[in-house]
Input
Amino acid sequence: MSAQDPVILETQWLGRRAYAEVHARMLALRGARSRDEIPDQLLLVEHEPIYTRGRRLGEGEVLDPGIEILEVERGGRITWHGPGQLVAYPILKLVGKGRDLHALLRLLEDVLIDLLKGLDLRASRDPLGTGVFVEGRKIASIGIAVKSWTSYHGLALNVTTDLDVFRAIRPCGLDATLMTNLERELFPRPVPGLPELAERLRLCFEKGIAAYPRA
Output
C-alpha cells in the first residue's frame, strides 16, 4: 500500500460474542491480511465475561485464585472483557514508517481520545503506561500483537461495565479503584448504546488510519 492509495477499512459489528469465537476469527483475518488477500479489518464486539492475560503478567496481579484466566498473544497484563464493554480489534497491514509499535499504540489511544472528545469528555494518555484516562481514572485498556507486520488484538472501552469485576485482579497492573466507565463519567447524561458507540468508533478509526504512515 502506498501513501496515495485510498484507505479501505472493512468493519464488522459482531454484537455480543464468546471470546474464543472472535479470537479464532481475528487470527484467520490476520493471516489473510498478511497475505494481502483482504484489506484492513476492524472487528467491533461485546464479549461474554472472561479474564485474559497478555505477555506481561506480574506477580500479585491475580487477587482471586478461583478465577479462570485465558492466556493470549497480546502485550500487556491481565484484564477483563464482558458485557457493557466495547472491544475493537484492528487488523492492519503495517508498512514503511508505519512499522512502529509505539506509533501504533499512540494511534489507538488517539482514536479513543477522539471518540471521547465527541462525547464531551476530556481524555488523555498516561506517559507511564498504555491506555486512556479521564482525570486519572482508566476508562480504556490497550494490548496489541503483531505478526508478519500485521496487527491484531486491540482496545477495550468500559461503557456500562460493572467495575466490581476488576476487583479480582490488578487490571493492567493497577488498583481496581482506578478503573472507570463511560456511564460514571457521563453521569447524569445518558450513555449511547454499544451499536451507536461502535459506529462512532469506526469513524474515529477511519480518521486515524487515514493519517497513519503508510509508506
User: Anything to note?
Assistant: Residues 128 and 173 are 12 Å apart (CA to CA). The chain has one domain: 9-210. The first strand starts at residue 9 and ends at 17.
